[in-house]
Amino acid sequence: MAKQSIRTLVPLSLALALLGAACGGGAAPAGQSPTGPGSPQPTGEELTLGVMGPMTGDYASYGTDWQRATDLAVKEINAAGGCNGNTFRTVPADDRADPQEGVSAANQLVAQGIFALIGPIFSGVSLPVTEITERATVPTFIASSNPQITERGFRTVFRMAFRDDQAGPFDANTALKIMGAKTAVVIHDNSAFAKGLAEEFVKAFEAGGGRILSVEVITPGERDYTPTLTKVKGLNPDVVYYSGYFPEAGLLVKQGKELGIEKPGPGTGWLFGNSSYDPTFLKIAGDAAEGVLMGTWPSPETDPNMADYLNAYRAEYNMEPGALGHWGYDAVYVLCEAIKRAGTTDRDAVVEALHSPDFSYEGVSGQIKFDEKGDRTFPPLDVITVQDGKFTVYQG
Amino acid sequence: MVALALAAVWPFWIQNVYYHTVALLALIYVLLGLGMNVLMGHAGLVHAGYAAFWGVGAYVVAIFSTKFGLSFWMALPVSVVGAAVLAVLVGIPAIRVSGLYFVLVTLGFGAIFELAMTNWDYVGGPNGLYGIDPPQLGSVPLQTPRQLYWLVLAVTALSVLVMHRVANSRVGRAWNYLREDEVAAQAFGVNPVWSKLQAAVLGAAWAGLAGAFFAVRQTAVAPSSFTFLESFVVILIVSLGGLRSLPGTVVGTVAMIVLPELLRPLAQYRFLVFGAAIVLMMLFRPEGLWPGRARRHEEIAREWLGSRGRSA
Amino acid sequence: MLFVQHLINGLTIGAVYALIAVGFSLVWATLRSVNFAHGDLYMLGAYVALGIGNVVAASAGGWHPALAVLVILLAAAVTGLIVSVGIERAIFRPLRRAPEAVPILATLGASILIQNVVFLAFGSAFNSFPLSLPRGPFTIAGARANVMQVAMVGLAVLVILGLHVFLGRTKLGTAMRATSWDREVAALMGVDVNRVIQVAFAIAGALAGAAGAFVGFYYGVITFFMGFLAAVKGFTAAVFGGFGNVRGALLGGLLLGVFEALAAGYVSGRWKDAIAFVVLILIILVRPTGIIGERLPARV
Hints:
The complex is a heterotrimer of chains A (396), B (312) and C (300). Chain A is of the alpha/beta class.
């Protein structure tokens, strides 16, 4: 018996050693020695920025757009002489929108001694990843909207996006005031983001005297949402609010029109959250998109800064910018501004500069200031609509 | 032994936290593989809802920590027992159907678990639970990946010993006989339902154990970590490594968990290479990279009869 | 009125499920195995539709809509057929004697591979179908439907029932049933088992490709990962109807579609998928042969 267990254990131990060796030895980009928290770096240096998002997998379109937008900002800044003479370099990190992958990738980036992290995008990934970057004092600029991420007393987390509890009430107000709705059906896709936004909408809509007839859930990736829409038609609400992403939003409004869900008045009965604001929405929905309302960031039609960004992106990559990239683009500039204000690349000082009440930067997504939690103080939101197949600011 | 010692000491020399994190994740999958090896390797049960057991383990630790502030060590036994109890509840109906139908029933069960967690607001719905406290050893919180790595390494070493003993016990021999020849095994006194249920409970208990450590590694749990694709990752680990082979489980983990990490520099090409690697490994080593010893039918039968005689 | 609308909705999506389910059933019948990359054939069909749609959109005069639909469906079917047969030759044939889990897991790898090839070739963006084909809407019993839907459901029913009749009457069908019953005995009796299996994969791939093309131009959203969910649904439908049975796959697909539509309409979309899985488990436990289907040998 003893002999036999040794026979089994020897190859097993060898295998375990192999595991150790594989982890310890082989892994690629030669890890620089980890940098301690807030360790000062001399000016005139090349600062490494981690760029995290889903670069592969179902949500790859968000991550690759995010990376292109940050690379664009880095290229522009470096060409203009950097920030106090410091230049940037980006290292992409794929999280596949999966918390588990995000934790691994974040540890790798921190071990490489990144100066700051641009990302993650998805709330589920941001929650554990910010725990790691907070411990290492790495300023982290997220595009996630889950309110709880900035409610944990972290100093290094900065949210480029809205909070759900900012966007939800804004959209509820649009439904109540602009669309004059008394009743609503809310649809979401059971993702952390869309569900959170839907819940905030429900709260604010009911607080404002409206009545929620039903909260419906669809499965993203399916193509046919007529069963849910038929139910919605039967309920006959004043407004249908969808809080999820643009591909499903486009299908919903298109199939809704075919089923005869359409109301006179602003929005034609449809209101969408900010993740529907994407050119692909227009292509998928076609004519059905005409007149719908959306609550979202300033549109390129009204904000010259945004138009400049979109044009620069098109010129650089010869493709249409995605839905979130402008926040990553702004994050790099915000970081640069903070380095200039701090006058040093000491990370503690840079974090302090970002939290300072004097800090302000005019980005492509509007004015950027952070409160003590790391949320933006003036989240810029607009109501936009679709006219002649184009997004345009809604004028009531 | 030497290699085990090596596995224990390399983190002293290599300080890079990233390697510790990956090694820790790999060890957790080794634990999962050990459990799946009991189910699939020994009892022949391809359990496609395996991730649910692992999810139970993780959610128990998360609920204990974030809702009640109770320690990891109080949650750990509940994780293991909770997963085992669920295995019984699923196993009683599922074990009666064979082959592909068992895969389908367990697949459906795994999907229902994921949907239930997504729709259950108490555990945070799609957000899950976060801010899980690290386990304490005395008054020291085991917080860094390296500390957790050592803890899980000790648990894994212990698990390997336990699994080795179980495989050679009366229970283990009954599984082997049953898998090889169900009719003959029944004739010689193996109760198939009872025997397979034992395997399901043991396999699930290890998944619960792994889930508990997974929760403290992540500090957050969410339904997206327990999809049925995760079950297939574990099935691939034991199949790629080789069934009924403890070193095979480790090799399989290296292939499935460490390889994608090594491929990170390939960026967008990472999963292209990974998919191709799975196909090639399956084509050229269908029996696994480090398979268990091939044994003859008579040998397995004799072993079972021997252990039966001994206990009588 | 709403009920009729739910029926129409369910039958449309059910027709797609049925076309995918038939493939799973045929492969199961001849090989007692599952091709995990089956959903990716459907995805490839959608990309073929996208490619041809782009060509049509760019051509000056434009094509007659019926011609465009026909060319798209045929091209997608051929693509699905070729890739499906390729998977059989590259994976299933060399692994014919390996443990049953091995080829199945290898196709899981193939699925990851195909998805990432498409991802790298066409990018990660959500593609929208470039043409707007006329749908011919009409009203029936107060519910809305269109000619495209009728064509799709009709085509699926005709093709699958035709296949059923074909397999019942021809020598190839007999060979397929013999192979399904016992592969070794069939081979001894002079059936070219490899050819039978290849035909099964060819039909499976063609139908999946055509279904993908239809979804591509009817719903208009095409992504590289769309095959996964479709495969899950098609697989469920195949089990609903009774695995390894062509007629059962048709019935299972249409029933699953209607069932989902009613669950989403009268219960909640939140629990729709969970309800589908509970019913699936109950069917397996109570009536493992599906709604119609012969009892399979105990050892699988």
